[in-house]
Design brief:
The chain is mainly alpha-helical. The protein contains 25 helices and 5 strands. The chain is globular.
Length: about 575
Amino acid sequence: MNTPEMKQFTDLPYTRPDMEALKTAFKKAEQQFEAAHSAAEQIALIDEVQKLKSHYQTMQTLAEIRHSIDTRDGFYDTENTFFDESNPFYIEMTNSFNKKLLASSFRKELEKELGSHIFAMTELDMKVFSPSIMEDLAEENKLTSSYDKLIASAEIEFAGEKRTLAQLTPFMQDQDRATREKAAQAYYGFFAENEAEFDSIYDNLVKVRTRIAKKLGYKNFVQLGYDRMGRTDYNAEMVAAYRNQIYREIVPIAVNLRKRQAKRLGLERLYYYDEPLEYTTGNAIPHGNPDWILANAKKMYAELSPETDEFFTFMTSHNLLDVLAKKRKAAGGYCTTIPDYKAPFIFANFNNTQHDVEVMTHEAGHAFQAYQSRNARLLEYVWPTYEACEIHSMSMEFFTWPWMNLFFEEQTDKFRFTHLSGALLFLPYGVTVDEFQHWVYEHPEASPAERKAAWRSIEKKYLPERDYSDNDFLNRGGYWMRQGHIFSTPFYYIDYTLAQVCALQFWAKSLSNREMAWADYLRLCKAGGRDSFLKLVELANLKNPFKDGCIASVVPACTKWLNNINDTIL
């Protein structure tokens, strides 16, 4: 595939795809594929279809990025809506071609040339789509976009200014307890004020997803959710057993870490609004503005490895990062790729907290992997499935530990303690989100109030130390509304926890043999998505997280490091 000349991101041209012309091109390739007399002819046609897909996805990605940079840009808002409505038709085109791919009389030769994983993934793609669900998919896309717009619409009056949710974060970590409490009340107050709308969006999402599942012949959305995620080598039962490992091994550690935090803060009782503040001296914060952070990141990646140096130079020289929090910008952070240019893109909302450095290293981990596998023969092999993707990002956070002094200077130990303890504290929350989603889709007729009660019950199991004080909205179980993945990407969230367990393995290994750990990581990044999750875990010389004892195996290194730090003086 010829790669067009890379320009500055702002100069990359956008044109709306002509869906009729695309449909004609797909149909022609499909007919020629079916009439082909050799595997070589079919492979050439697969390459042609890859070009068609790459161009469509490039335009979609440019529209999505530019829309998220400014959610009120009328042009890209319209284009984003166009893709919401067109994607089901695009999926129909690709699936129609893929049916012929799966039925090829040269399949053995194709598998030899392209690998077998593309066929396993394609079979799942076929399973999760039917022309009968086209309108439902368009409705699902619109509902997830309406959640994003509602979040981005937040303009909360606080400390004399209107602020976005992201801009409230520093106040929620303030050393003054009254400020933290007020900031948390303002933050969750936005969700409470819009509770009915959040409930309505989610209720409609659950109903449309359940309707899709039934139309496709599933009992409920759970297995369809797994199949959509491309999970070919584990299931809901294995995930339930994995959640039990977290409950057994990590929840007691998390409870102890919260006790240590309360002691550090000199508090008898740790309330929800205290959790974001780690130390009476304040949390570690980067000692410079976003440009300074990126300049230090460039130095860090130049020293980490030749591969990271080349990658980060490419990213910065083409302005493939948009990291400053500003009004009208969508919330959160993500990494994506612009296929025609084989270019990753990082989107974030820096807000002068340690999260700025964490999100940068996290999204750079994604981008580094995509850059390493950018020349994959198939677009489907540039990224692996989500849980494998998250290994790259979360592990990069740990591989960059030796350079954290560049950002935090005398607060480096404070940052590392927070980062490692945060990784462990995250695991119980991550499985809370997962168990909640299983409950929701197993009880699709539940009312919004019943859903919130289920969340609160599951939350108490995995986060027994969390105390919402007198906040009625949170005590009724409203916290989950802030978690965008629950709305946009059902069953994704467990992937972060699986990856965290893998990242902790890389971290523990790097303490004793950094070169070997990095070689394993680089091999994993270069593999991209050519294999399933558990095969990639094996390729990287990591333990399978679903095997009993895996999580217990990383606990000693974590507790030893944390216990060797006197956190009361940080």
